[in-house]
Amino acid sequence: MNDTVPSHRLNLRKPYLKLIADGIKTVEVRVGYPRMRKIQVGHELTFVSGDDTVVTRVKRVTEYESFEAMLDHEDAVAIGGDLGESRDELLAVIREIYPPGKEKLGVLAMQIERLRTTRE
Hints:
By secondary structure, the protein is of the alpha+beta class. It has helices spanning 14-21, 34-37, 67-73, 76-80, 87-97, and strands at residues 7-11, 27-31, 44-49, 52-64, 107-119. A five-stranded mixed sheet has the order 1-3-4-5-2.
């Protein structure tokens, strides 16, 4: 019997990795690339930025049709820390990360819990 929990490595910008490490960012937003659609509750996500990593466990995955719909239902501060204080600013940053058209793949909001932080 295989007791290994599926694990995924995701690159993340350093400021957002710090928010996860500090326990502020508890919702990760991605678009519905085939690789992202494989992520399920219970899987481990290892976020990587340079030499730093934060290992988390997925508690919930919710799909939305757009970034706006996602922000209607998710806690913006849990997504972007202080940036989440302004919905418009957070939306602009998300759209800077994901070029036009990627949103059409679907928007995934993954609630995560931090397990450990390491330097590789």
